[in-house]
# Entry
Amino acid sequence: MTLTAMDKQRYARHLSLPELGAAGQSRLKNSKVLIVGAGGLGSPCALYLAAAGIGTLGLVDHDVVDLSNLQRQVLFATSEIGQPKVRAAANRLTALNPDIEVRPLELKLTAENVLDVVRDYDVVVDGTDRITSRYLINDTCVILGKPLVSAAIHRFEGQSLTYLPDKGPCYRCLFANASDAQTPNCADAGVLGVLPGVMGAIQATEVIKLVAGIGEPSVGRLLTYDALALRFAEFNVARRADCAVCGDNPTIVTPQDAMPASKTTAAQRSLISHATPRQLRVRLEAAKESATPVLLIDVREQHEFECGHLPNSINLPIGELGTRMTELVATLDSVSRGRTARPDVVFLCRSGGRSLQACELAVGANLTAVPINLDGGLLAWSRDVDHDFPVAPAG
Amino acid sequence: MDLDTNYRGIRFRMIDEQDRIRPHIRLFVNQTEVVSLEHAVSPGDTLHLICALSGG
# Structure
C-alpha cells in the first residue's frame, strides 16, 4: 500500500525526517504490530503507534476498565469503567487514526492460543503485568522468530529490552527463571502513574525503528529508568548458550504455560506417601542415628520461608519446582552419595496443598525417591508439634 | 562490603541455599554482568542489583 494524499498530510512531520521519509512511512503503514496488555505500558504505546500510522494494531487483553486504572492507563475514559479494555481501546485508537486497522483481541494468551495469535504479526510488544505471561510471549517470539519489545515497571523504576531473532539475548537469557511470587505487582507495590508513559513510549520508539529499519535497537542492552533520580542506565546482556528457549540446545520448543495442569494419574498419585507432623518429628529424630537421611523441601514462597522454617529445609518455591527439578535430583544425588539408602524427600508448605502439588510434580519427573507430603503442612506442625513455630500468612 | 550487615536478610533475597544468585536477580559491576560471587570489585566500581519486574 502506498501513501495517500491524506497520509502525506497526516504524517508530514515523519516525511520531513530523511531517516524515515515516504519509504519508512510506507513500511509503518504495511506493518502489523501486536501489543499484549492494554494497561499502563500498552496505553501510551498503542496511542503512539496508532498516531504513527502502524497499519494493523492488534491489542490483547481480557480485563475490563477499572477506576484504579485511570491514574496511568491513558487509553481509557472515566465513562468507560466496566467496559472490556480492548473494545474501549479500539474506539479510542480508531478515533485518533481512522485509517489504521485496530484488532481488539479480548482473550487471555495461553500455551494453546498464543502461536495462532502471534503468528500474524511482524513485531510484538510485551506490556503484560505477569512474569508468567512474559515467559509465554518471549518463548513464542523466539519459537516463531518474531522481534519482541519488552518493558516492565515497578514503583518508580522501569526496564526495557528488545529481542531480535538470532541477533541477541531473549528475556529468558536475562531472567532464566523468575516467578510472579518474587516480583511484587503494581497493585501491591504501587506505581507512579507517568512511569509507564515513559516506558511505553520507549517501546513505541523501538517498534517504529524496527519496522522502518532505522536506528539501533536496544538488543543486548537492558535499559533501566529510575524516575526518582531521573536517570537512565544500560547493562550489557549476552545471549546464554544454555538458555532454555534460544540457547544451543533448547528444552522449550513449544510455548508452555507456567504451571501445567497436573497430569498425574491415580496410579502415580498412589506413589506419594504421606506423613503427619508427629510422624515427621519421629522420622527426623530417627534420621539423626539412621543411614537414611531426610531431605526437607519447603515449597512456600521465599518471604514465607524467611518468616520461619524447619532446620535444614531447602526453599524451592512451587512456581520454580517444575524448572528446577534437575537441581533437586542433583541435590538428592549429592545427599545420597556414600550412603546405602536413598533419602526420604519430604515436601512441605503452609497447609499441605502446594506440597501435594510438588509431590505430583516429583512423581511426574520420576524422582528417584518416594515423595512424602507433610499433611496439614506447617500449620499442623505448629498445632501438633511445635506451638512456637511461626507460620507466615499465605501468599 | 557487607551488605547483609547493613541490610539484614538481603543476602537470602539474592542468593539461594546453594550459594547461587537467584534466577530473578542479575548482578552487574558497572555495565558488565557478574555471574560469580567471587568476582572482585575495585575501588570506584558500582554494583547494580537488577531484579525482574513484572508490572505493566
Q: What stands out?
A: The radius of gyration of chain B is 12 Å.
